[in-house]
Amino acid sequence: MNQIVKQFGSVVANDHVDFRAKAGEIHALLGENGAGKSTMMCMLSGVYRPTSGEILIHGEKVRIRSPKDAMNLGVGMVFQNFRLVQTLTAAENIVLGESSSFWRGPRWLAKKSEEIEAISKHFRLPFPVDRPIWQLSVGEQQRVEIVKTLYRGADLIILDEPTSVLTPGEVDQLFETLNRMKKEGKTVIMTTHKLKEVMFASDRISVMRKGEMIATMAKSETSERDLAQLMVGKMSLENRAVVREKPQGKPMLEVGGLDVYADHGRKVLDGLHFQVSEGEIVGVAGVSGNGQKELAEVLTGLRAWKQGDVRFDGKALRNSSVRAAIELGIAHVPENRMKSGLAGSLGAVDNLLFKTYRSPERSRFGLLRTGSNRSWSQKLVELFDVRTSGIDAPVQYMSGGNQQKLLFAREIDQGPKLMVAVHPTQGLDVGATQGVHQLLEELRSKGSSVLLISEDLDEVLQLADRILVMYDGRIVGNISREEANREYIGMLMAGSEEDAG
């Protein structure tokens, strides 16, 4: 792939990137979330088309306009979120869309199932071919996806974050399969952020950061420490705020031995222990998918937990509801403001009322106090500098920064004891980002607790008094602001426990 550029509107996702993969190798494409690695592979697999640049396979320039074009060229991709029809069997998913399916004989599917079973046994990827996808485990579903690419003749197989949903045993089994593919001359490209797996499984490694290719090297030429530094870069000191005194407030949130399971049944939080004090911003650093989302849902009443203790303001919590969390003084800025935070078709007034419409100030005898609510909303819009054509205009037409400010206005207005902010500046420009940072700093200065969950390491380093690093559902680092070291945190985020010195 030569000088690949991919733009989404004004956003440059890939900036003149060069990438080479050899036949018969496992090539790891390493980078943080948003580094551009998945976008690169989506262009190679035909999901996206490059804005500019060229792709060559076996030395010949090719045009890949669709996944079908990619498959005809021997390129197959297994996505992190599987592309499977849940009600169809594994075999039916694998042959779905095959041209020969239009000329079926009475034993057509049985013959195809035998071919699929032979491939799965050869590459040691077992799964029941005649069982519906919804009855298979996540690991088995991934095997179906891999066999689907092999069945369709792929010589170059792309795996997007392949171990993110697998158990340790399934990870070992997957790497055995990848080595078998390599020995048979197939090329495997694995996008990942996990350093230990990169050093264990790959032959060569390419590192991307902020849409650019930083380096490519053989595994023997590098180390986990070097890769961590390449992946997260060196933080410029001017981005660090002045070191503050350690907060002296009492513990507001105390979590001990917390076990949580995701919707698919896998344990996503494993024995979590931490606390957040009054007047303290605690940052949670980590790559997406390591339990941060579920942690935020537990604390805000959106998800139950199996085991563990959660104490808030000195009182033990049980599996609570969203309303109970609100009444306790827990505010929540979710990662997707338009999916979980705001109703896009409604105006500012209705969106601001979502959490307080039951209060005596906002309603009486079940009827909203329309006049006072409009005056209150107008004051909040002005106080938080929300730019809108009117308080009744649908919020979906606001800019992302103004939507976020409106969301913060609603959450801060009640004077929360704890703010759970998840990726609060995602998709915002520099000015809007600074505004959000100022709001979080003001909360801290007023004595509120803030749990800042963010994949932006610069943001965490700039704002947090302490940094918790999450990996695979566990807290693998609890680092004070003064001791924060970008390289070391990057290694912990990628699953390396090697001492960064």
UniProtKB/TrEMBL annotation:
PROSITE patterns: ABC_TRANSPORTER_1, ABC_TRANSPORTER_2. Residues 1-235, 253-497 form the ABC transporter domain. It comes from the Bacteria. Keywords: ATP-binding, Nucleotide-binding, Repeat, Transport. InterPro entries: AAA+_ATPase, ABC_carbohydrate_import_ATPase, ABC_transporter-like_ATP-bd, ABC_transporter-like_CS, P-loop_NTPase. One of its GO terms (molecular function) is ATP binding. This is ATP-binding cassette domain-containing protein. It comes from Paenibacillus germinis.
